[in-house]
Amino acid sequence: MNKYELTVVVSAKIEDDERAAVVDKCKAYVERFGGKVTNVEEAGKKRLAYEIQKMKEAFYYFVQFESEADAPAEIESRVRIMDNVLRFLIVRTDEE
Questions:
Q1: 3-class DSSP assignment, residue 71
Q2: How far is the CA of 87 from the CAs of 5, 58, 61, 68, 77, in angstroms?
Q3: CA distances from 13 to 21, 57, 71 (A)
Q4: The pTM is what?
Q5: Strand partners, 36
Q6: Which of 4, 6, 19, 75 is the most exposed place for a label (fewest CB within 10 A)?
Q7: Count of CB atoms within 10 A of residue 58's CB?
Q8: Which residues contact 61 (CB under 8 A, 6 or more apart)?
Q9: pLDDT tens digits for 42-94?
């Protein structure tokens, strides 16, 4: 099992419960493809470096998880088409 981190940038124009649903859906995708969520960190509302869909601010979430090597590609393909997700990135974290 490899360790990964999924960073999700969520629209600031939606309500709190909708944002929570977006994060829960991301966690469900991780578990659906055989991964195990180890930590979810909310970084809060941050100013974007440039406007995305006419928005200057968004909420950042970091989801750490463990999974096999083929799972991140499957997760990315699902997160890519989610509503209210402005940007996302999955990176493999080094074990130290």
A1: helix
A2: 14, 10, 11, 23, 13
A3: 14, 9, 30
A4: 0.90
A5: 66
A6: 19
A7: 21
A8: 7, 8, 10, 23, 26, 40, 41, 42, 43
A9: 999 999 999 999 999 999 999 999 999 999 999 999 999 999 999 999 999 97
